[in-house]
Design brief:
By secondary structure, the chain is an alpha+beta fold. The protein has two helices and five strands. It has a three-stranded antiparallel beta sheet with strand order 4-3-5. The chain has a two-stranded antiparallel sheet with strand order 1-2. Strand 1 and strand 2 form a beta hairpin.
């Protein structure tokens, strides 16, 4: 039986591998702290474990390091 991730479309032949991958993969938006580019999580990883900025001119890497969830940022208002 083949298992396919709904977010990144990666396929797995083993249910355990699929479950482990699914725990770390989502369609959530990320932003690179180095270049400021915003992109989907699936563009930043091929295996669900290693993350790099998809911008060819940027060497940002690491979820939670250079690549952060857009939800972690808030917009400051000025009065």
């Amino acid at each position: 039986m083949t298992y396919t991730c709904r977010n990144c479309k990666q396929t797995f032949t083993n249910e355990l591998q699929y479950e482990l991958h699914r725990d770390t993969c989502s369609s959530e938006a990320l932003i690179c702290k180095r270049c400021g580019e915003r992109f989907s999580e699936r563009r930043a990883t091929r295996d669900g474990w290693h993350y790099v900025c998809p911008n060819d001119d940027c060497d940002g890497a690491g979820r939670g390091e250079d690549l952060r969830s857009v939800r972690e940022f808030s917009v400051a208002t000025t009065r």
